[in-house]
UniProtKB/TrEMBL annotation, chain A:
This is ABC transporter permease. One of its GO terms (cellular component) is plasma membrane. It is a multi-pass membrane protein. It comes from Paracoccus hibiscisoli. The keyword Glycoprotein does not apply.
TrEMBL record, chain B:
GO terms for biological process: transmembrane transport. Pfam families: BPD_transp_1. Keywords: Cell membrane, Membrane, Transmembrane, Transmembrane helix, Transport. It is a multi-pass membrane protein. This is ABC transporter permease. Its main location: membrane. One of its GO terms (cellular component) is plasma membrane. Belongs to the binding-protein-dependent transport system permease family. CysTW subfamily. It comes from Paracoccus hibiscisoli. Residues 62-250 form the ABC transmembrane type-1 domain. It is found in: Cell membrane. The chain crosses the membrane at residues 12-41, 61-84, 96-122, 128-156, 177-208, 228-250.
Length: 290, 270
């Protein structure tokens, strides 16, 4: 009887999940498998040569231009992630520990609004803010603080980092906030009672307990930044491409779909490896908690 | 509030300023009569808004964007209702894997979704159109819709449905008369969020729309021409006001839904 009931429930659940799952299967899994297959083929002139090969991956890993772009994407994503998580933590801490409970929702709402406004226009405005005659430079020269416009923020990797750090800030704040909210406040009091001061309590109690949130924030910022297409295109004007721009150029402009596919698959592999490392770290922290 | 609390508060307010810096500049440049986007400002004008209104390509882009956003948000929310109901109400084999796969677009770089879909569509000889963008947007909006809907469905009291069965309702009747009204705020909130995401989505629209413009791809094409920028600033101002209004509405429905099922008010759309 119990088994029959389970079967009926399983059948009901499966038939409910079937439409969205089949949709994802056709629209996502089929294309992903297609580029996986393409990445092992060779680009002929006008057609794809159907002979399995690892040449595309060899090119991805040995070509100096691909390597430069890969390294740039990884470094930019790493710096953006570090900067975003470190600067976001105090904000999340403030909202969780200092803001009155009834005002917390308002703060979170204020933080999420900029994220939902036109991404392209935000990116372009950072170009305006940081540019040669931009807001920062014209203000500083106007006030007589500098004579020449600052060049280290002009249309280069630094400005890409600032723009991306701004774009993904809410992604970092929210998971850290959720982790901080879950901390049992009596643990902090216990720490204080046992003779720890404010700083050591933070270091030895709060921070370890907030770590799952920090790890989630790291992943949630790292993954979209490494695959960002718009920012290098708008800020760098196509002169400092990241991996997404290179995939697009190979796939469309150069029409080398096998190499473009190999780049895409490699990017996904890098993202997967980084995610697994962080998920593993997260599990260790969770085990420490128990 | 103690001293360290005040220091943190100053930092948090400074951080909010950093977050809002571009959005504050947007209306300033939209009403500035100078054609170059830089300080010092020239004078006040509403010309850019008038020019925006008279632009035929822009109107076409707006119509296209609205068509895509309305269709994609309805489709994504319908799929989302199925997935959220399945994952919160039923236990079945392979649930974690299937749900994980459906949520995958949330953590997959968009360029990969767009490129792989494009390769398949071109390979099959499908003509790129608004329809192909709708297909792509439905895929990436679905996880967000599910995230919102799961909260609505999981806080549902199962005994209410059982009471409906006991009173002689059929399964569909109970769903339509009891469950659906209770999760309606969640559905509206999911629709609004999907709509906002689709309206602002650039990558998939850029590669899958063929020659049809959408608002983001139109904006992108104009960013190269310095003369066109003031109109884009005006457009941006309108879009920002629109998104904030939609989000505030979505948040309102989400909270009302929460209150209706007796939940505590929690913050944020994510």
């Amino acid at each position: 009887m119990a088994k029959a009931k389970f079967d009926a429930e399983a059948r009901a659940g499966l038939s409910l999940i079937a439409p969205p799952f089949l949709y994802a299967l056709v629209i996502l899994a089929v294309p992903l498998l297609t580029i996986l297959a393409y990445s092992f083929l060779t680009d002929g002139y006008l057609e794809i040569i159907r002979e399995p090969t690892l040449a595309n991956y060899a090119e991805v890993f040995t070509d100096p231009i691909v390597r430069t772009v890969m390294m740039r994407s990884l470094i930019v994503a790493a710096i953006v992630t570090l900067a975003t998580v470190v600067t976001a933590f105090p904000v999340a801490y403030y909202i969780s520990f200092c803001v009155r409970p009834e005002r917390k929702a308002l703060w979170l709402f204020l933080i999420t609004i900029p994220f939902w406004t036109s991404y392209l226009i935000r990116v372009f405005l950072w170009k305006v803010i940081l540019g040669y005659n931009g807001v920062v430079n014209s203000t500083l020269t106007g006030l007589g603080i500098i004579d020449e416009p600052l060049t280290f923020i002009l249309y280069n990797v630094n400005s890409i980092v600032i723009t991306l750090a701004h774009a993904y800030a809410p992604f970092a704040i929210l998971p850290i906030f959720v982790a901080l909210e879950k901390i049992d406040r009596s643990l902090l009091e216990a720490g204080r009672d046992l003779g720890e001061n404010r700083l050591t309590t933070f270091w030895r109690v709060t921070l370890p307990l907030a770590m799952p949130g920090v790890i989630a924030a790291t992943l949630i910022v790292f993954i979209p930044t490494i695959g960002d297409y718009v920012t290098p295109e708008v800020i760098g004007g196509g002169r400092i491409p990241m991996i997404a721009n290179m995939i697009q150029v190979q796939m469309l402009a150069l029409d080398n779909r096998p190499l473009g596919s190999a780049l895409a698959v490699t990017t996904m592999a890098i993202v997967a490896v980084v995610s697994l490392i962080f998920l593993f770290l997260n599990r260790r922290f969770l085990r420490v908690r128990q | 509030m103690n001293r360290s609390g005040r220091g943190l508060q100053a930092y948090a307010i400074f951080y909010l300023l950093f977050l809002y810096a571009p959005i504050i500049l947007l209306p300033i440049f939209a009403f500035n009569s100078g054609t170059i986007i830089a300080f010092p400002l020239q004078g006040v004008t509403t010309d850019w808004f008038a020019q925006m209104w008279g632009n035929a390509t822009l109107r076409r882009a707006l119509t296209n964007s609205l068509t895509i956003a309305v269709s994609a948000s309805i489709l994504a929310t319908c799929f989302g209702v199925f997935a959220a109901r399945a994952s919160t109400r039923f236990v079945f084999p392979g649930k974690g894997g299937m749900m994980g796969f459906i949520m995958l677009p949330m953590v997959l770089p968009e360029i990969i979704v767009a490129m792989s879909l494009l390769v398949v569509l071109l390979g099959m000889g499908v003509q790129l159109s608004l329809l192909t963008v709708i297909v792509g947007h439905t895929l990436i909006c679905m996880p967000y819709a599910i995230a919102v809907l799961s909260t609505a469905f999981s806080s549902l009291d199962r005994s209410l449905e059982e009471a409906a069965y006991d009173l002689g309702e059929t399964k569909w009747g109970a769903f339509r008369l009891v469950t659906l009204p209770l999760v309606m705020p969640g559905i509206i909130s999911a629709l609004l969020i999907s709509f906002t995401i689709s309206l602002d989505e650039f990558i998939i629209a850029f590669f899958l729309a063929g020659n049809e413009p959408t608002l983001p791809t139109y904006i992108f094409s104009q960013l190269r021409f310095p003369r066109a920028i003031p109109v884009i600033m005006a457009l941006g101002t309108v879009l920002v006001i629109l998104s904030i209004a939609l989000l505030a509405l979505g948040e309102y429905f989400r909270r009302r839904g929460n209150a209706r099922i007796g939940g505590k008010p929690t913050g944020g759309l994510m």
